[in-house]
Every structure is written in structure tokens, then in C-alpha cells.
Please model this.
Amino acid sequence: GSFSHWAGEGWHYRWEDDPIETTAYALRFLHAIAPHDPHVARVVNWLHAQQHGSWFVNTKDTAAAIYAMSEVLAMSSNELNPHETIRVTLDGHTIKTVRIDAPVLPRDQASIVIPARLLRHGGAVRFERDGTGSLAWSTDWVQYVRDLRASDLDPTFSVSRTYTTANGNDWRIGDMIDVNVAVTARADSQYVAVEDPFPAGLEYQPKQYESGDSWSGLQFFDDRAVFFTSRVWRGQTIRLHYTLRATTAGAFTAPAPTAYAMYGPAAAASGKPAQVTIR
Model:
């Protein structure tokens, strides 16, 4: 159709395995040897379609895509001096009209949100333009699905967390709470972060210099513990242990722990939240 791209067979943090980087470098090569090749426009279309806001997937492929498109796209004579009116319509009904007389739009004009209720049964979004200038646009779609079960997702990771104390479930101010988090990988992954939010009413009280600041290690913040690991293999289980102190009486929610690949490919999973009571 109107898209062209190149992709590797897997993800091993080489440029040829990242489809955005691969396509960006291929575009630069193709444009250098055949600038009028019809694939050039289709590749630019594909790169634009991968963009989410001002980002692609990570910093490295964002840079590669920007470099490639800046080499390929020739700036028109009136690009930096626009005088145009843009109308965004849904099924023929105007959603928003924007007047553009400057190359950079204010934030409230540059983003247009179409309410979900108008898209419940689908629809055609169209951009109409009058005047002189150029227009670049991209879209992000967010869909919320009801009654989604964990079994429908088949995540790359499974995450669990347990709390234990010397007094069982009878937590009192001053008690030390042992926290154990387990993350099992169902596929090889690189640069994985595991985050475990603290429930309100409990605090981490490290010894001096204990928390550290190394990349592959355990770090503690005001509201969560975070573990970074550069590689985890299929079937491997990461086990984290640390201790919290109960400081405030009340009933609190412990948000679910999460595990996710920080760069790619997209992989994330959540454990279960918990309710805790401190007397």
C-alpha cells in the first residue's frame, strides 16, 4: 500500500534488529542512490506512522528516524512562513478548526482529542487545509477494553509479591515487614525493570549508603523499590527481598508490582495489589 519498511528477525539490541532503525538507515541509503525512487515516500509514511507524540519507541530509534527524514524531506519555500487554516472533521462534522500563522503551534492548538463517544461505532477522520504552508500530523489511539482477563494477555513476565511478619497478619506500628517479589520470564529479555510500590503507612529505612546507585541493582525511592537487570533468560526467576517498617496506623492499598522491558520489544506485566492494615 502506502507503506514500506525493513525489519530484522529478532531483538538483540543491534540496529538491524530494530525495525525503526533498520528502516531509517535503509531510507538514507535508498535516497542517496535513488532520491526519486517511489519507495522513498512510502518509507517516510511508515516512519511517521510509528511516531507517538514526539517519540518513536526509544531514544536511539527516535534519533535515527529524525536524521533520516531530515535528509530526505526537502523544506518547501513557505514551510517556515505558513498562512493556512486546518479543519479536522469526523464523518463530515467539524471537530476543530486551527489557524496557523507560525511554524510552531501552541500546545493547546497542536493537539486535538476526539471524544471516545464519537468513535464508538467507528468513523472517518479527515484533515482539510486552505492557504499556504505544509502540514505534518500523526495520530495516537487509546482503547479501553472491559473484562479483560490476565489469561488473554499472555505477558512475557509473571509477577508475584508476598508480605511476611513475625506476627502474621497482625501488623502494628514499628513492625518490620519482609517483602518478597518474584518475577519469572517467559522469554529472553534485556534491560528489565521491576518496580514495587510501597503501601502508604510503611517506609523503607536503609542503612547509610545501603541503597546505592548502580545500574544493575536495587534502588529505593520515597514510594517504591526498583530493580534493574541487564538480562533475564526464559524460565529464569528474579527474586527480590527487602524490609519495610510500619510507621502509620490505618488501612492501606499496596499497588501491584510491575515488570517491564525498558526499551524493547514492548513487554510488561503486573502482579496483584494488596490490602494491608496497621494497628
About this structure: The helical segments are 19-33, 39-49, 59-72, 107-110, 150-153. The mean pLDDT is 86. The longest strand covers residues 176-185. The radius of gyration is 25 Å.
